[in-house]
Amino acid sequence: MSNTGPARFTILTPEDWWRIPLADPDLRARSIDRLTKLQFRGVDHQPALRRGLQDEISGQAAEAAAAGGLEMYLAVQMRGIPVAATLTTYLAPGRINEGAVEFEQKVGADGAIDSVQIAAGEAIRRHQLRPPEGPYATIENAPSTTVVDYWIPVPGIPQTLLLTFSSPMEEIADVMVDLFDSIASSVRWRD
């Protein structure tokens, strides 16, 4: 729900999303262990599948932590329906001082870039549809991944909060983007 770095903020996610703190390896490992135990509660005959899920989540979390991630949230389900989505929060040095057009020139036109007003201030949003990667790239009709990034300037300090959402649920991509917009709009700064 919130980070403890120099730029303190709160963010509201659906109650079915699981939070994994990234900075502390022990806390990260315990959170992932609790999540996989919860997901496999009552399913004792699938230890290899459970271990595979735990290893996959651990790898993704370690990668995000190495890239400077603060927290990762995984959508376990929403209203009892399985949903695949993630949110990773980062605190980047430097401040975004330009509008969407200038930002697009700076980072390249990789996706649709626009300015959005959220409770935490004006943000830059990039919406991309990425083709399947890795082993999924060779599978016919494999879904593309919807990725939406929000760069939010931190008030009073030269840093930017980056929220990165992704979901491989191409068939409901518009609904997921609306959800991501709602979550990004919940960011509030704390003293």
Please specify the SSE layout and strand pairing:
Blueprint (H helix, E strand, L loop, with lengths): L8 E2 L6 E5 L3 H15 L7 H20 L2 E7 L1 E2 L2 E2 L3 E8 L6 H8 L4 E7 L2 E10 L14 E9 L5 E9 L5 H13 L2 E2 L2
Antiparallel strand pairs: 1-11, 2-3, 3-6, 4-5, 6-10, 7-8, 8-9, 9-10
Helix pairs in contact: 1-2
List its traits.
191 residues; Protein Transport Mog1p, Chain A; two-stranded antiparallel ribbon; 4 helices; globular
Shape: globular
Helicity, as a percent range: 25-40%
CATH C-level class: Alpha Beta
The parts where pLDDT drops under 50 for at least 5 residues are none
How many whole angstroms does the radius of gyration measure?
17 Å
DSSP strand tally: 11
CATH architecture: 3-Layer(aba) Sandwich
In whole angstroms, the N-to-C terminal distance is 15 Å
Strand fraction band? 25-35%
Order of helices and strands: EEHHEEEEHEEEEHE
| Main beta-sheet annotation | 7 strands, antiparallel
Structural class: alpha+beta
- How are the strands of the largest sheet arranged? 2-3-6-10-9-8-7
Number of helices: 4
Mean pLDDT: 83
The total number of structural domains is 1
* CATH topology call: Protein Transport Mog1p, Chain A
